[in-house]
Specification:
Length: 589
Amino acid sequence: MAEGAGITRYLNESLRISKALQTFLEARHACEVQYATALAEACYTLKGTVESKVETEGKLQNSLLKQAVMDLIKGTGKIADARYGFAGTMKKNVLDHFSSVILELQTTRDAKIAEMEHLQDPIIESFENYKKAKTLNDAVKETEKEAKDSYSKAQQEQKKKDLEKLSQKATVLAQKVAQTTQAVTDSLLEHDTTRNTYLKETLPNFQKSLVDWAYLRTKTIKYMLLELKSLEQVAVDKALEANNVGKDSAMSIDVQRIVDQFVDTVISKDIEIRKTSATSIRDLKTSTKAGKLYVKRNDSPLSPWSIQYSVLKNNRLYMFENAESEQPKEVILLAKKQEGAHTWNPEKQKKPSASDRVSSDFAIVHPAHRSLFQKDNCFQLLFHANASAASFPLEAPSQETTEVSMESSMFYQEEDDRNIRQSLSMRRGVDSTGERPLDRRYYFMPVDKEASNMWLSAFSQNGAKNCWCGKCLSNQPSKLNLKLWILDGTALGMERGSNDSFGVIVKFGGLKMSRTAFKQGPNPVWNEEFLFEGVTSCTSSIRLAVNSGLNLDNGDSELGTVSFSMSTMALERRTENVVCGSCLRIAMV
């Protein structure tokens, strides 16, 4: 019995392992098939790209334009070589050769300036000596005069003793006066001699040295100019020789043919746009759908709606001022192979801003939830942004100008959407770039409220898609329904210390689906229920954005976001408590 039980367990374990192995092999086979399909598509695309590249390169290699350009490049290179040679020769023959002479001239000039400042020092010194001797002589003469006056007074008073002393003193002073007078005479003679030497020898010699320095300076400059002139003549000859290179091939280019090709490949787009802008309602008799629509061009619930007569035909939406208009106010291309969807405005307007640019692979049309604008029967038209896209806003054509302004812009994927795209590709096998940032959106509401479904169907017939991947069929709606309760929030905006009103916006990827009412205070209680029917299979994420205020376009009013991946979400009721500085409580089915 024990052996039989052991054999049974062994067989059961072997069967389980075999089933697991079979499941693994089936999954592996499915992955290999998917990989092989993707590889085949990539090879087919690469083959077409390579063939186009080879054909283009062949035409370019054999074109006269390329030969002329190459010749001109060679000529430009020779001109550059001539300029570089001129600079090198000038440095070698002029700058380096005369640098020592220039330095010596500068040193001599500085020495002459210093010498000139001290040139009259001997004259000044001799004159100072003369002044000192003269001052001393004057003082001695004054003393002698005082002694003579004292001697005369003593004679008058007949003082014999004083007369002898004063006589001796007067004698000594007379001798001293004679000595100082001789010193004054000698110093004056020395001063005269020094001045004569300065005027006859020192000053002429200095002036001669200045003349010699100026002559050497002029001679050096003359030699440098001669060298530069000869070098420049050589450079001019080489430049003329280089300019002649490529002239023959350049003259053989058929400029008119090149211009015609440019017109065919580039300006033809302008012709197409202008033909579209010149379309009148009479030209659109066999349209898919026509009628009046309320139109809104942004998300703000405060912006007005405008009524425009709209016509759908040939993957284009024409919007007229009224049913009698001769020219559309705006034309939107809903889908175009290998090109983006564009919007054109043929009316004269100011220079378009970044918000006027519309570019995508195709347009998406989707019903708009009543909570967005408190209106029924609304639907929205959205465009995906390419990595690099361009739009063509036009002015009304006139006889004076036919210019087309073209602007380009860059769009980047949001960082927090990367995981969402990865989970999307893992869940459904869809390209991970299926959800991209939006460039622009329109909101429509039929004047005839019963015609909303007819308009949605007409948009789909003219190239608009109803999902992110563009592969889900509108006649095969998804059976996935989602019910969402947004209950309440706690401590919202407390860090700012303000008592704002708060609301929650529900997004599927970049598509705004619904929003709650705005409640006052940091602890709002919404308790609102939203039912989303027919959720497309490629919808990868749900995103809840908490906003303060009513301006839904203002990014600064967004406090934070919470994202849920559909691939990790079980299909039963679940409650999420999300904490990111505050708390938001929700429930889903």
